[in-house]
Amino acid sequence: MPYFDAASSAPLHPVARQALLASLDEGWADPARLYREGRRAALLLDAAREAAAEAVGCRPDELVFTSSGTRAVHSAVSGALSGRRRVGRHLVLSAVEHSSVLHSAAALEASGGTFTEVPVGRTGAVDPSAYGQSLRADTALACLQSANHEVGTEQPVAETAEICADAGVPLLVDAAQSLGWGPVPGRWSLLAASAHKWGGPAGVGLLAVRKGVRFAPRGPADERESGRAAGFENIPAIVAAAASLRAVRAEATAEAVRLRALVDRIRAAVGNLVPDVEVVGDPERRLPHLVTFSCLYVDGETLLHELDRAGYSVSSGSSCTSSTLTPSHVLKAMGVLTEGNIRVSLPSGTTREEVDGFLGVLPGVVAEVRQRLGAPVSAAASPTPRASLVVDALGRRCPIPVIELAKVIGEVPVGGTVTVLSDDEAARLDIPAWCAMREQEYVGEEEAEHGSAYVVRRLL
Amino acid sequence: MPYFDAASSAPLHPVARQALLASLDEGWADPARLYREGRRAALLLDAAREAAAEAVGCRPDELVFTSSGTRAVHSAVSGALSGRRRVGRHLVLSAVEHSSVLHSAAALEASGGTFTEVPVGRTGAVDPSAYGQSLRADTALACLQSANHEVGTEQPVAETAEICADAGVPLLVDAAQSLGWGPVPGRWSLLAASAHKWGGPAGVGLLAVRKGVRFAPRGPADERESGRAAGFENIPAIVAAAASLRAVRAEATAEAVRLRALVDRIRAAVGNLVPDVEVVGDPERRLPHLVTFSCLYVDGETLLHELDRAGYSVSSGSSCTSSTLTPSHVLKAMGVLTEGNIRVSLPSGTTREEVDGFLGVLPGVVAEVRQRLGAPVSAAASPTPRASLVVDALGRRCPIPVIELAKVIGEVPVGGTVTVLSDDEAARLDIPAWCAMREQEYVGEEEAEHGSAYVVRRLL
Fold first, then answer.
1. What are the structural domains of chain A?
2. Hey, is the C-beta of B104 within 8 angstroms of any chain A C-beta?
3. % chain A with pLDDT above 70
4. Could you tell me the end-to-end alpha-carbon distance of chain A, in angstroms, rounded to an integer?
5. Interface predicted TM-score of the whole assembly (ipTM), two decimals
6. Cβ–Cβ of B34/A321 closer than 8 Å?
7. Nearest to A429 by CA among A337, A365, A340
8. Contacts of B112 in chain A (CB under 8 A)
9. Is A295 in the active site?
């Protein structure tokens, strides 16, 4: 039963399991204590710190272990902002950062600070010079992920770090998705990562703060981990995290080549096998193991359920699968289709047979869901075209508004318009995205009595 | 090699190890995901929450898992203060709380709030009515540990909770040291605990917040664990924590009786075997497995080293063993001797032979350290008594100032005084404590050119 959601959490690497078991007996005591059990725990912690620092490319005394990647990001942002509060309270981040960064920015704003979101292009990458232009005299910190967690696009971290360094602004790199594949290049100042993304255990994050970066931990004082990560150290898990990072790095080059080929296979095949599909993200500058595509006229949640029934575990950035019913902010920032969204992220060791099995079932699953939702098979011309049509999709969720639009577009003449009434947030993204895919004209959005009216002009 | 520091961290319970191993394969995925690996992880998390809630005595939806006991306390204090900020920004706590509570109070003060420390008596317990008198109209939260981590004294939690409930002030109980022994009684509002204290793995804390208690999580938003504990859930460790809590509870009654008898044995024997020793804490209302005593004329760090060499791992609240050189705030608040302090906390399964072995080596170790430091064997009268004497112990650390005092007290006549000049912080506590033990009069402290002058009058 293939698991294709490594970007959420990777299964425990055999080396992590082995190291965890070995250190359960040696690493349970308080490393701050003077007796032998404490000294043994401290030795394990020191060795893990050295191994992790080497993999990150920093000094051991620049690295602390946190209880998660999210905590590493929260501490990094709050500590760096606090350390540079005399400079100002402005934060710069890309529009496609992980929620832990976005929520840190929101917390800053709630306490009176400000932030600037740097937009991304259609592949999901920021432009370094545009990023640089958002740096201000009062910018205390800049944040940029090494690679995007939803679409896999690599960000120009080294170039951006250079620009930030020249401007005297520390750059925090969220390396959660990429650290297992290799160190982050360039003159970054802070780095955060999460062990369970590379096959380490849950409960371990990394926070690196380069010497010379002003950093003032927030919250109640705690003497552990240089005051940067409160709470008793989870040494067995830390040892397992460091050992597995070293192990995945040793395999990374070969495995990246292998998985990149499998992902290329998916990227190429999906468009041929499934009609009305958009593969998103940068085809080249990307994580080796991750691909995301969106299927018109399908809702993500049903698709996930059907793929799960067929034995494939994948995730989705569609609004229908999120507790908040808000479509993925990443896909939104990229301006691509959010409906029927599927992210495939292959764990190490995924075979070609597993990928081919997935490609074998996908077309049938998508077709079945589309049929169930009454999606259009082809836009047959209506015998009595009307110059304009209004489709009432109020109260109906993604992907129904787009399905209804697609069904009637053939009923107006070329040059005529279809107006879709919808109160679903996803429609605002998906109707323009459908127009771009279908080469129809998106005229715009108007306020309506309920929800919005989206106007589309038929061009073909 | 007996390990007698269970109050710092207990070795992993066999049930914890077993549960951890079993759930490494089942609990690594994201419990928020819809596919089978996610559903399996969510089931494990739900079952662990139910088991832990039953042991705590709360509803499952009142309990979240944090990454440590420290984090549970930090979140409890900040969330409760924030939830009741309209009431005021005043916090009440006992003077002998764990550092995580004290540091939370300091963080409150740094941000403009205030707190009141309720003093404790010589056994380390608060008086519930005195505690009640410190509650004010603007008190947002009260904190009281279930039992003290350094001396084992149980606090009157149920009575204090009653008083707080009547006053409409929520009471947070830090149950880190006692939860393995049984649920916390009474009408408490919030409770924090730490799994590695009961033999669970590191990396898991519990935070219970009773329904109806106003609580507003602080820091960047995160949807996991009801928004009260940011970061990816460490499900294998959570499962192990819950399973081991249930297991230690099943053994708790019988083990408490057994360990209580061993501790009584230590309490009785230490005074007979070692001269000039003070056993501290309540002899009856106490944790079953913990006893603390202080030895005059010995420094804690040397004592720990020698006991470690002899095969016994214990801890100390003496200033000499702390990185900050500040004597234990607990012993200080109790007004007892801080020098030569030893805490013995027996893990489950400790045998009478191990305890007797410890009692066998202790007198020799203490005598040897005293001899090395030149401690007085007996206060022999000087042939030419002088009415008063000044001892210059400037620049010398605990226990030297007390040793020098004890050496010369016999050289002044009854009614005469000895003045000790010292710049060691511990002297302020230990010279009065020595006077109480030796039945000499502590006259008081005067400012001196360097440090302080401590005046003692010979009575015997």
1. 14-248 (3.40.640.10), 251-373 (3.90.1150.10), 388-457 (3.30.110.40)
2. yes
3. 96
4. 43
5. 0.90
6. yes
7. A337
8. none
9. no
